[in-house]
Batch of 3 targets.
Target 1
Amino acid sequence: MDSQRTTLLTLPDLHAITPFVGSFNPHYAKVALESSAWVDDSRALSDKKRAFFFQTGHELLCAHAYPYADEERYRVTCDFINLLFVFDETSDDQTGEGVSRTGSVFYNALTKPEYDDGTPLCKSTKEFRQRLLKHCRPLTYQRRFAASIAASPPAFALIGYALGIDLPDDILEYPAMMAMYSASADMVCWSNDLYSYNIEQAMGHTGNNIITVLMTHKGLGLQEAANYIGEHWKTLIKTYLDAKKSLPNWGVKIDHEVVQYTMALESWVIGNLNWSFESLRYFGSTRHEVRRTLVVRLHLRQIEEGDETDV
């Protein structure tokens, strides 16, 4: 480690700004064990990454993000978030060519039933696809899920599946619905960057973090960038609520499903906030103290920016 002095960062209280009500999936205890065992049995992760995997609590995130899902659908959401972890951890240790190859394996296994390259990632992805298609029509799967493979969008694409509904494209593409979707996705992404910054800055992995982007392009200090996220969060909440108020009536059936869908978007936002302070992922053993005080003690830098090697 270098001699950088430890400093403090005060987080904006995103919980206080967020009017959404959280809930928790009642199938968590049983399904969490099943899904994590499924990943462990795949042998797709090294021993070091297996240890990290069991600390991340993806099933806990899904219990917050999809509290309304029945047992089978909740299991699929857990499997998918866990599968994304396996994909990310596999590609993190690869060069550009290797990452491209791994991405192709992941996509082909999701979209081509006959594809099989014999790798653990392919096998797990095909097993996930089979479970998902049990309650998801092939055309819906292709149109809503397989077409959007990048962390938050496909996780949001599982909302309709987890609810057991399939809203028509013209409803989902209605401007107010799209504004709500975008604001919700931004809230999840911005809060994740805020909470993960301490770990990332310690490892020198800040290039894709919104805090570093704000500091670089707006000339802000670290605390100013965190404060900016708090102010922007208020804008995102207002955008979401204004769009929600402007939704028209489409008839009893569609209106009921739209209410369910908006509840599900809100569950993702507040659920992600709650999980961030329950899981060990961002704040470790200090998570409850950080939630109470909103003060983060920055870790000493372990790797300087630009010092990482591509292995």
Target 2
Amino acid sequence: MSYSFSGKLWRWKGEAPASWVFVTLPGDIAFEIKCQIADRRAWGSVAVNARIGATTWNTSLFPEKASGSYLLPIKAAVRKAENLHDGDDTIVELTVKG
């Protein structure tokens, strides 16, 4: 299963000093993934191959209760390579593994 969508980068700020940057998947894509993936990993994560621009990486989607969607973590190396910053819109391509 492969998907392409536009999403906005946003920074999660928790209690820990580290913070994470994510893109939230559109609801319709998240729903389709939930319906088709029976073998989820720890914490309900889903293994994917992601691409933004020329940068490709392996990661996992993580479920988010508040939105009912999945979150895609965007590593610092990806943000640097693609010159992305908090609040930027970007095109994401995902291929669900398994």
Target 3
Amino acid sequence: MPFRIAAAALGLALASLALTSLAVAPRPAAAQAKPPAPAAKGTPAPQPSTPAANAPAQTFTPSHLALAREVVLSSGIARSFDSIIPSFAEQIRKQAVTRPDIAKDLDAVLASLQPEMELQKQRMVDIAARTYAGKLTEPELKDIAAFFRSAAGKRYVETQPQILDDMVGEMQDWTQDVSEYVMVRVRAEMGKRGHQMQ
């Protein structure tokens, strides 16, 4: 289903964002490079570099983060996370398809892990909330949250899946049309310059 593809793509993009945020987290002191050796007498000492990876994490007030989290949840963004973890379980089941003897125990294990998997999803919600807080001020988030609490905002979120589904189909047609249009225009313009393109 096209909407599922779009939602999965968004989920993967956000997951990638989460991995990026983990990759740039400050390294433990033991893993950091040693300071440079002192410069020879009379030579200016090199200035220490301050890579972004060693920058302190951005801090937010609890109310700022709470608003950001509300926007993540009320805007429908968090829905894209819902399909990610179940897809992992489905992949594991597919890998075990040649072992029918373990199917019952595997289902029981996967069911028992649901609370832990929900915590993992909430961790991604927290990451998304911090991302929103980093891009939008608290007053801006307050206005956005107010919109999503309104009847129009709730209707917007409700219709999002159908809109995305329709738009994915429309974009496929649009992409094909624009591709052909650009090719026709390029051939015409190149023809004016004495070049024939197939």
